[in-house]
């Protein structure tokens, strides 16, 4: 798919996310908006998937480790036809297939139940090992938050991925710099993420996480050295909506009618610029 | 001949590995203690030593299970259920991933390593988790059968594998089923329900008490969840009271599981014997059982007192 088309798709998804978030009320919106270009690149270009056969044996696997950011993923899965868009209005509601945090048994296309942070890379290591045992060339992509990397289990998983030479595993860090209470730097100063992954024996690339061209290129790049890949995607929490961008309070929040109107107007302008 | 169920576990894995290519064994730097080393030697490509990373190991096993493999994850009971509780909860139980957690070194029977290594809460922790099946086999035969049944069953299973040596209580053709207990000795005065090595101790206590005119019905309840409700209710119809015995906390384990059945169906006098809401300590298994009231003599006395109290009423 050409880059222009992917950029438009990302804008369409971002606008829909705002619609569903407004419809729902209070929800995790900031960390959903920061992932949109990454998810768009993966789902509309990079990954082999089949919405009509979510368990296709040789599909690529995507794991959203930062489960709270699931609204962007749900919107994309519905757009691709994994399930009907009607479900998006039921997100977080009683009886919905769309739980507040993703649940693999309820939602087609969700590979892993997540919500308790820090488990996605490990789960991805398990899948990557399984794919090697099966002799499949499919790849495993795990999207983690930078704040989430504070969980110690990640570093067990990062060490094991390197130990088992899992070159079919790619971890993308949604490096938006903010967490629930604070900036990541103020809460648990976590500098030089790329160096940390590299020191554990990973191939590391740092990119602009909103530049679709750069995302696609980095996801498609292969190095024949048996190392897992970490892509540090520098992003903006709340990307696309001025009053949400880099604002901690928009980790989980509710838009007023006026805020919704402003958000829609800004996103429309943003789309026209693309 | 006395044998540790743990030793049988290693051999059982090798047998299962030969029959089923989907079985993968994971351990966390304890292959020689949990005996998964036997599988490792035979099937190195299907054995992963994950290092001292229990949390990672549980989530990795869930990832493998999500791809159709049957991971058997092994570490000490205390680390499996305590250290990696949340990983078991989210990655394994909540997603109903087909992982078998084979936990060794449970209870005071661990001995000298002390309280940090003696899991007295593991059954309690696993039993309250939806989708989780909890097994605590007694002797070597039942341990082997429990692992085989766990592999046949689709869904998460926690298997508590004893370390203390004990004799065979079952014939080799014994047929273990998840959800079923068994009467090992019929009796009419008191129903005794236990698991693991305490089943052996219960049989010894029953023999001694029969000489004193007290008849115990000894039930071995290796399937703690689901529990054999019918067997318990049938037994208490003919006896005067029920006693549970386990090398586990008196809270949340077999005692609680049996009490839930009894209280909600047929309230009956009951006694729960186990470790009384305290941590263990170092010592030999025999010394610890004696000090914490779980040796045959203490068990026998507790049951006798309970019986006499019922007789007075």
From TrEMBL, chain A:
It comes from the Bacteria. Coiled coil: none annotated. Keywords: Thiamine pyrophosphate. The keyword Nuclease does not apply. Pfam families: Transketolase_N. SUPFAM superfamilies: Thiamin diphosphate-binding fold (THDP-binding) (SSF52518). Its cofactor is thiamine diphosphate. Residues 10-266 form the Transketolase N-terminal domain. PANTHER family: TRANSKETOLASE N-TERMINAL SECTION-RELATED. Belongs to the transketolase family. This is Transketolase N-terminal domain-containing protein. The lineage of its organism: Bacteria, Bacillati, Bacillota, Tissierellia, Tissierellales.
From TrEMBL, chain B:
It comes from the Bacteria. The keyword Transferase applies. Residues 3-168 form the Transketolase-like pyrimidine-binding domain. Its cofactor is thiamine diphosphate. InterPro entries: PDH/Transketolase, THDP-binding, Transketo_C/PFOR_II, Transketolase-like_Pyr-bd, Transketolase_BS, Transketolase_C. CDD domains: TPP_PYR_DXS_TK_like. SUPFAM superfamilies: Thiamin diphosphate-binding fold (THDP-binding) (SSF52518), TK C-terminal domain-like (SSF52922). It holds the Pfam family Transketolase_C. Keywords: Thiamine pyrophosphate, Transferase. Gene3D superfamilies: 3.40.50.920, 3.40.50.970. One of its GO terms (molecular function) is transferase activity. PANTHER family: PYRUVATE DEHYDROGENASE E1 COMPONENT, TRANSKETOLASE-LIKE PYRIMIDINE-BINDING DOMAIN-CONTAINING PROTEIN. Belongs to the transketolase family. This is Transketolase. It comes from Caloranaerobacter azorensis DSM 13643. The lineage of its organism: Bacteria, Bacillati, Bacillota, Tissierellia, Tissierellales.
